[in-house]
Design brief:
A hairpin with a 4-residue loop joins strand 1 and strand 2. Helix 1 (5-40) runs antiparallel to helix 3 (57-77), helix 1 runs antiparallel to helix 6 and helix 7 (141-165) runs antiparallel to helix 8. The chain has helices spanning 5-40, 47-54, 57-77, 86-92, 99-119, 121-131, 141-165, 173-209, 306-313, and strands spanning 223-233, 238-247, 250-256, 265-272, 277-281, 289-293, 298-302. It is an alpha+beta fold. It has two domains: 5-189, Dbl Homology Domain, Chain A; 223-313, Pleckstrin-homology domain (PH domain)/Phosphotyrosine-binding domain (PTB) (PH-domain like, Roll). InterPro entries: DBL_dom_sf, DH_dom, FYVE_RhoGEF_PH, PH-like_dom_sf, PH_domain, SOS1_NGEF_PH.
């Protein structure tokens, strides 16, 4: 008799999990442990750096080696009398939130390996020495470190396949569908962690360009739009180059600095978005102009094109 499709997928999950635990063992018990031991002697890199590179890999390794893999093995041994997977995966899913921290830290970790390999030849040598071992299969530390980042999407694909192949009347259908939903939420959680990290990084760059003005730096701000704009002076019928940063709560009206030491812009005016009014002006002399009026003052601004003006007004 041919094995049912869903059992093949369950076996694939078990086999990939065994290989994955081997990879985690390499990262945690070999790379992390040996680099940490060397760091403690003070000859290679600071201990803090090693901790930052490996983030929470030890927790991830222990969870898979001591809990999830044994549960899967037990389940596959008794598959013939209890062919189900959904309940085991439901137990696994909440713990996968641990990956958020690892995934969020990944780019920084790879960057640290590069920087410290240049700074500290003994650090580089130790990594190269471990990479030569058979267990590394001719792959670099960075390559092995990518594996946990790819693991949750892999669970999602396997489980989707499993649910698709289950017979409609299967006793595991309800559990498996619920498990898939949980895994999907976790995958979203780890993507959200990456998106949030990128948002904060971009925000930080903006604050640096503004010279880190105390009352502006706030991690909860959201940058909506930025760009150059012409300020119209009605007094002498001329325009001058300015720059706008629009956040969810304020509009910063800035002047580009001529001598760029440190900050790129000087904030001339801060306008609260609360109570702000924006409307298009039909000015024949200055096309694409719009008026922004707030509690602080009113600005007459000119965009470079109709599209740009509409984008600002929107």
């Amino acid at each position: 008799m041919q094995e049912p499709e869903e059992k093949k997928i369950a076996l694939e999950l078990l086999e990939t999990e065994q290989a994955y635990v081997t990879r985690l063992h390499l990262l945690d018990q070999i790379f992390y442990t040996e680099l940490m031991k060397e760091a403690k002697t003070g000859k290679t890199v600071p201990e803090e750096v090693v901790k930052m590179i490996f983030s929470n890999i030890s927790s991830i390794y222990q969870f898979h080696a001591e809990f999830f893999l044994p549960e899967l093995q037990k389940r596959m041994e008794s598959w013939n009398c209890n062919p189900r997977l959904g309940d085991v995966i439901q137990k696994l899913a909440p713990f996968l939130k641990m990956y958020g921290e690892y995934v969020k830290n990944f780019d920084k970790a790879v960057e640290l390996i590069t920087v410290w390999s240049e700074k500290s030849p003994p650090f580089q040598e130790l990594i190269a020495d471990i990479q030569k071992r058979k267990v590394c299969a001719n792959l670099t530390l960075q390559h092995h470190m990518l594996e946990p980042v790819q693991r949750i999407p892999r669970y999602e694909l396997l489980l989707k396949d499993y649910v698709r192949k289950l017979p409609p009347e299967s006793p595991d259908r309800g559990d498996a569908e619920k498990a898939l939903e949980m895994i999907f939420m976790v995958a979203k959680h780890s993507n959200a962690a990456i998106a949030e990290m990128e948002r904060l990084q971009n925000l930080w760059v903006v604050y640096q360009r503004l010279g880190l003005e105390d009352d502006i730096v706030d991690p909860s701000n959201e940058l909506i739009k930025e760009g150059p704009i012409q300020k119209i002076s009605t007094r002498n019928n001329s325009t001058s180059e300015k720059y706008l940063f629009l956040f969810n709560n304020m509009l910063l009206y800035c002047v580009p600095k001529v001598i760029q030491v440190g900050a790129e812009f000087q904030v001339h005016l801060r306008m609260d978005v609360d109570g702000m009014k924006v409307r298009e002006l039909n000015d024949t002399q200055f096309p694409h102009t719009f008026l922004v009026s707030g509690k602080q003052r009113t600005l007459e601004l000119q965009a470079r094109s109709g599209e740009e003006m509409n984008a600002w007004i929107e």
